[in-house]
Structure formats: C-alpha cells, structure tokens
Amino acid sequence: MTSVSDFLVTPAYAQTAGGEGGFLSAGGLMSILPYVAMFAIFYFLLIRPQQQKQKQLRAQLAALRRGDRVLTAGGIVGVVQKVRDDSNELEVEIAPNVRVTVLRETLTSVVTSTAKPANDAAPKAG
C-alpha cells in the first residue's frame, strides 16, 4: 500500500565513482553554454548600444555652445544662451525672453547643433 509520502519523496540513486568527471567535463561545459550565449546576445543587442549612446550624449553635452537646441528630461525644448564652463549649469531660453537655468545632466539630447565639425570646412572655389 502506498502512502502520501511515497508521492512526495523521490528515491535517491547512487552515482558511480567517476561518473561525469566534474564541472570541466563536456557535460558540465555544455550545461553553461546556453547561459554564456544568452549573456553574449544581451551584451551585443542591449548593453553595448546603450553604452555607445551614453558616450555620444556625454560628448555632445561637453561640446555645447550658444545657439544649440536642447531637450530636457522634462520634455522642454530650448536654445542654449549661456554656457558656464566653471559649473554644470546652462542658461536655456525656452520661450521669448524666458530663460531658465538647467544642469547638463538633465539634458537628454541635443536637437540641433551650431557647431561645425573640424573636418567639414567649406571647399575653396578655384
């Protein structure tokens, strides 16, 4: 006659000596291979592009100049009027004659930039 405990407890079987050979055997490596592959996929599809985007934003924020249009984290679009090099504060005009002071860290993107890249000089007519 079977009792309830027979259904809840599974029998334990002894493993033979030298069974799989431990973690570094082919079976051990094959068991972690899907996790390594999943991490690689996450890294190249999610983590790395986000790091590159953050690096690009930091470079844009470091190169801010007067006249650049910026977007704040609150969704306000404005034009940079004054850049203070000694602090992280910027003066941004959000409407005619309405200027606010914002921190660089609160800017989410540079919408348009007045700065020209160094290698885009106008060709000489000749």
Automatic annotation (TrEMBL):
Origin superkingdom: Bacteria
Q: Where in the cell is it found?
A: Cell membrane
Q: Name one GO biological process term.
A: protein transport
Question: GO terms for CC?
Answer: plasma membrane
Q: Does the keyword Signal apply?
A: no
The topology of this chain with respect to the membrane is: Single-pass membrane protein
The record lists the membrane-crossing segments as 23-46
What does this chain do? The SecYEG-SecDF-YajC-YidC holo-translocon (HTL) protein secretase/insertase is a supercomplex required for protein secretion, insertion of proteins into membranes, and assembly of membrane protein complexes. While the SecYEG complex is essential for assembly of a number of proteins and complexes, the SecDF-YajC-YidC subcomplex facilitates these functions.
Name assigned to this protein:
Sec translocon accessory complex subunit YajC
| Gene name in the database record | yajC
